[in-house]
Amino acid sequence: MNKLTDQLIFEVSRPGRRAYSLPTNDVETVSLEGIVPTHLIRQKAAELPEVSELQLMRHYTNLSNKNFGLETGFYPLGSCTMKYNPKVNEDIARYSGFANIHPLQSPETTQGALELLYDLQEYLKAVSGMDAVSLQPAAGAQGEWTALLLFKQYHEQNGDGQTRRKILIPDSAHGTNPATAAICGFEIVEIKSNEDGTVSVDALKEVVGPDTAGMMMTNPNTLGLFEQNIKQIAEIVHEAGGLMYCDGANSNAILGLSQPSTMGFDAVHFNLHKTFSTPHGGGGPGSGPVAVKEFLRPYLPVPHIEKEDDKYVLNSNYPQTIGRVKGYFGNFGVNVRAYAYIRSMGPDGLRQVSEDAILNANYLKARLEPYYDTPYPQVCKHEFVLSGTRQKKLGANTKDMAKRLLDYGFYAPTVYFPLIVAEALMIEPTETEAKETLDAFADAMIEIAQTAEENPALLNEAPHSTPVKRLDETTAARKPIVKFER
Ligand SMILES: *Cc1c(COP(=O)(O)O)cnc(C)c1O
């Protein structure tokens, strides 16, 4: 890194330098006076950086080189399924027939796009075992929200809307679950987990009842463990008149191996941007379709994309619908990518995705177990959770170890989540990583565990090799400096 590449573009700037050359203006210059309100007319030129085209190019290329992404290195961020996004998906999403159509075009002129969406719904039905799908929700959290609105509508139609006010949620759940239930106006009842990390059936029996609207579960759960009692849990909730919701963010562990429908769920959301390999991170766009059992179909968002003879149509004739949850057809481009991914993998390929994801996670877990506390030693699914308590006692906590991983060129795992594990390190390698990459990561984690014993101070001050060293996160959040001062 030399001085030039570390400079801000404002520091590189010199008055009068330009990255463009436009032809001379041959039309009359028009004054804004009388057209734009006076207080909105700029009195002096904007203070934009003035640089040459080459300086501009270098600035942004160097900036992007400082970014860490899936395509620069291993990204084992638990729960987020940071798998490789094949480039063929990108090519297909950019086909002009998909990229240049307008969502308000009449269905007669967009039959191909509607066919793709219809087929994607069919694939998601096959994967989940459910009967109907809406592609509208733009993210996992919006899928959760859509499904809980369906539950609410179902209870209201049954005259139970006033009494069924409670949603049961395990203490290992992702934060979006209680947030979703709260936003839908439900009361949240937390269910304790057993010592082995799965939901306690006894704790469930104590709280389930006529006021239960439903239960939100993740399977495999956020500890990467398959809920052994899932069928019994679903029976208990159903017997009490409640509905079962599956947070499907962990579907990467069960493709072709198990289905939310057979587990007893009534609705599930998918994170196409996780499981079905469309790029994510940085806030979107995503896609969080919901799949439901037949009895919930009438409440799904409209319009439904349906097939009549050999034509694809938009059907809004569902009087009990919860209405629209997103403009047009959801995030269409994300849906195209997921479709391309599913088509290129095929059913056998998708099953192998999950088998390899599970194998990779268990391999890494086996290599790290001797060096880190492993609160849940049983065989895991696509991810697992370690605890940094042993190292914390030596003077280096989980945050220190996560920061140190950056020095080795790895993205850090998810840390301090799930909340029920002290000093949690949640690791999800995904199926797309080679054994050599997993080994290099394991070697780094083992070295870090040794550093915690020999020289914890080195960890406390990490990272040492990144362009920006350890930040004071509180000050950065409370008093951010976001403006360059000369
Ligand atoms: C990612 C995730 C969500 C939320 O999905 P978004 O698409 O980020 O809104 C919900 N639950 C679990 C378990 C997740 O991993």
TrEMBL record:
The keyword Transferase is annotated on this UniProt entry: yes
Top EC group: oxidoreductase
Gene Ontology MF terms: glycine binding; glycine dehydrogenase (decarboxylating) activity; pyridoxal phosphate binding; transaminase activity
Residues recorded with modification N6-(pyridoxal phosphate)lysine: K274
Domain Glycine cleavage system P-protein N-terminal: 33-297
Residue span(s) of domain Glycine dehydrogenase C-terminal: 354-453
Keyword set, alphabetical order: Aminotransferase, Oxidoreductase, Pyridoxal phosphate, Transferase
InterPro entries referenced in this protein's UniProt entry, alphabetically: GcvPB, GDC-P_C, GDC-P_N, GDC_P, PyrdxlP-dep_Trfase, PyrdxlP-dep_Trfase_major, PyrdxlP-dep_Trfase_small
Cofactor dependence: pyridoxal 5'-phosphate
Protein EC: 1.4.4.2
Gene Ontology BP terms: glycine decarboxylation via glycine cleavage system
One Gene Ontology CC term in the entry: glycine cleavage complex
SUPFAM superfamilies: PLP-dependent transferases (SSF53383)
Catalyzed reaction equations: N(6)-[(R)-lipoyl]-L-lysyl-[glycine-cleavage complex H protein] + glycine + H(+) = N(6)-[(R)-S(8)-aminomethyldihydrolipoyl]-L-lysyl-[glycine-cleavage complex H protein] + CO2
Protein's job: The glycine cleavage system catalyzes the degradation of glycine. The P protein binds the alpha-amino group of glycine through its pyridoxal phosphate cofactor; CO(2) is released and the remaining methylamine moiety is then transferred to the lipoamide cofactor of the H protein.
Family: Belongs to the GcvP family. C-terminal subunit subfamily.
Description of how the protein assembles with itself and partners: The glycine cleavage system is composed of four proteins: P, T, L and H. In this organism, the P 'protein' is a heterodimer of two subunits.
This protein's name: Probable glycine dehydrogenase (decarboxylating) subunit 2
